[in-house]
Amino acid sequence: MSWMPFKIGQPKKQIVSKTVERDFEREYDKLQKLEDQTKKLHKDMKKSTEADIAMSKAAVKISGDLLSNPLCEQDQAFLESMTALDTAMKRMDSFNQEKVNQIQKTVIDPLKKYSGVFPSLNMAVKRREQALQDYKRLQSKVEKYEEKEKTGPIMVKLHQAREELRPVREDFEAKNKQLLDEMPKFYHSRIDYFQPSFEALIRAQVVYFTEMHKIFSDLTDQIDQVGLTDEQRERENEAKLNELRALSIVADD
After folding, report:
1. Nearest 5°: phi and psi at 201?
2. CA-to-CA distance for 89 and 95, rounded, in angstroms?
3. Which of 26, 106, 108, 137 has the lowest CB atom count within 10 Å?
4. Dihedral (Cα; 84, 86, 87, 91), 10-degree rounding
């Protein structure tokens, strides 16, 4: 959102002090940045959960594809390993869905609701700006009659202009005071509003990764070859690959 004052003829009398206008612009600028940050965070959180879901669904598909591999029908050890992997991936997907649901309720939905407050704030600022322009216009009108010769008709018009100005001035001053009072309160309230959401996000992540540690520890116990280090597995795989390369059907011409 952006604050774009209308351009009109300025009265000679300064009706809003530079200090007040500077304070207003400062507070509103903070809320503009807060709105942008809230929208960005909401968008990023949605992308994050969508990526989480896509990742776990892809893992389940891969394990299912491996389980349906014809090799599983021929090698009991491979079948047992792929069954264990498929079970682990489905458990991971289930816990991931629980995590995403929790984040949706405790983080994403509150972010969306918070973003929904800003249009009303923007409208209040626009009403204040419109009231300011009306105030300036009528103040200029009063000043115009004050500069004229004080004849009877002019004095009547001056009196009418002042009467017309009074409620408009009071309306602007009320709107201006309300915004100057409430914008800082709104800005500072963000901490109390978002802290429970971010705490819930941390708890959801902790629960999820704790369960992932259990799932993959169990999986490792089921499929791991005891006593083999990563380097030994790498050498073993390389040796098997060399055996494949030695076959005539894959040999270089």
Report:
1. -60, -45
2. 10
3. 26
4. 130
Answer whether residue 4 shows pLDDT above 50. Answer: no
User: Are 108 and 42 spatial neighbours (Cβ–Cβ below 8 Å)?
Assistant: yes
pLDDT at position 76, please?
A: 86
Helix spans in the chain (H): 18-67, 71-74, 76-103, 109-115, 118-146, 152-223, 230-245
DSSP 23-47: HHHHHHHHHHHHHHHHHHHHHHHHH
pLDDT in tens, 114-156: 999 999 999 999 999 999 999 999 999 999 988 888 889 889 9
**61-70, 149-158, 188-197, 219-228: least confident range:** 219-228
- Alpha-carbon distance of 217 to 156, in angstroms, equals 91
